[in-house]
Amino acid sequence: MTSEEEIRDGVRSVVMTILELEPDELDDDADFDSLGADSLLRMEILSSLGKRFGVRPTLEQEARMNSVSNAVGVLRAVAPG
User: Fold this and answer.
1) Which of 3, 6, 30, 57 has the fewest CB atoms within 10 Å, i.e. the most exposed one?
2) C-alpha–C-alpha distance, residues 79 and 22, integer Å
3) How many CB atoms are closer than 10 A to CB 19?
4) What is the DSSP string of 23-66?
5) What is the pLDDT confidence band of residue 77, given thresholds at 50, 70 and 90?
6) Which helix (H) or strand (E) holds 14?
7) Could you tell me if residue 59 is left (phi over 0), alpha (psi between -120 and 50 degrees) or otherwise beta?
8) CA distances from 4 to 22, 25, 46, 47, 78 (A)
9) What band does 60 get if pLDDT is binned at 50, 70 and 90?
10) Per-residue confidence (pLDDT) for residue 80, from 0 to 100
11) Which sign, positive or negative, has the C-alpha torsion 71, 74, 76, 81?
12) What is the third-level CATH fold of 4-78?
C-alpha cells in the first residue's frame, strides 16, 4: 500500500515538473489555477497522476483534484492496495 507521504511526494513531483516550479514555490493547498495551470496543463497533471498511481478517478473525483492536498485525498481513496 502506498503511504500518504509517498502519494504527496509523487503528486508534488508531477505538479512541479509540469508547471516548472521549485519545491518552495509549491504550496500544497494552492489551487493549480493559481499556480499557472490552464485547462490543458491541468489535464496533463491529472493524466500523469493517473499513470503514476495506476488509477482512473471518476470525473467527479478529478474535479476535486485541484491542489496537491486535494489530489492526495482523492488518490488515497482510489489507489489500489
Assistant:
1) 3
2) 26
3) 17
4) GGG--TTS-GGGGT--HHHHHHHHHHHHHHHT----HHHHHH--
5) very high
6) helix 4-19
7) alpha
8) 21, 21, 18, 19, 12
9) very high
10) 74
11) negative
12) 1.10.1200
58: phi then psi, degrees, rounded to nearest 5: -70, 165
Residue extents of the structural domains in the chain: 4-78
What pLDDT sits at residue 79? 81
- Nine-digit cell at 40? 490543458
Looking at residue 72, its amino acid is V
Distances (CA, A) of 28 to 12, 50, 80, 81: 8, 18, 23, 24
Hey, what's the cell of 20? 516548472
d(CA 24, CA 2): 24
Query: For the chain, what's the residue count?
Result: 81
